[in-house]
Design brief:
mainly alpha, 8 helices, 5 strands, single chain, 3-stranded antiparallel β-sheet, two-stranded antiparallel ribbon, 49% helix, globular, 207 residues
């Protein structure tokens, strides 16, 4: 389990109970967590724990010439999907008529979302806009197909998981909590300089 856990962390996985139950339980043990942290330390990386989401992920200890290119690529990838993800979260709040955003372990039943879209043209327009841009870009025209496509894409990206392949119940992972961490970072920053001037604040956001 050590090798499996380290490999996931180094490839950008956010390990929480929802997404990776076995690796999560492994890291909850003090001895295992220290062993992984020591190994990552030899690679100039930290095992970072996000308390609000009860999740682990890998961060760089510092930005230097050896990892600046990798950090630039990672941050650019986050930026490319950031706005569509925020728009999806805002749309989901509007549909569910709640003030509670998705967090790790939140449950969404996609079948319960179809009806609100069928009766609200504004929601349908927002959904069409969302599916006109990457990573949710799709040629599908039917509302149900568009929603299914978005949820499938979020599943591929590691933001949602299903316990059974054919289930309509999706469980949110801690990746959404990382998005909220990024929002806080952006709100606290006057501007984000990319790609040449990435600084240490990004180390807590990139994994």
């Amino acid at each position: 389990m050590f090798k499996q856990t380290v490999q996931k962390l180094l490839t950008g996985a956010v390990i929480c109970e929802t997404a990776f139950a076995d690796e999560f339980e492994y890291l909850k043990a003090d001895d295992n967590r220290q062993r992984v942290a020591d190994f990552l330390g030899n690679l100039d990386r930290n095992l970072t724990y996000l308390e609000s989401a009860d999740a682990f992920y890998c961060t760089f200890q510092q930005v230097d010439q050896d990892n600046s290119a990798e950090l630039s690529a990672l941050f650019s990838e986050v930026r490319s999907s950031f706005r569509p993800l925020v728009e999806f979260l805002e749309l989901l709040l509007a549909v569910s008529q709640t003030d509670l955003p998705l967090h790790a372990k939140s449950v969404v039943n996609i079948n319960e979302l179809f009806d609100p879209f069928e009766h609200d043209q504004t929601l349908r327009q927002q959904l069409r806009h969302l599916t006109s841009n990457k990573p949710f870009k799709s040629n599908k025209l039917e509302t149900r197909e568009q929603l299914v496509f978005i949820f499938q894409k979020l599943e591929e990206m590691g933001y949602l998981v299903r316990k059974n392949a054919g289930s309509s119940r999706y469980y949110a992972t801690a990746r959404f909590d990382i998005i909220y961490l990024l929002i806080e970072f952006l709100n606290d920053s006057e501007r984000v300089e990319l790609p040449e001037n990435e600084q240490q604040q990004q180390e807590e956001l990139l994994f």
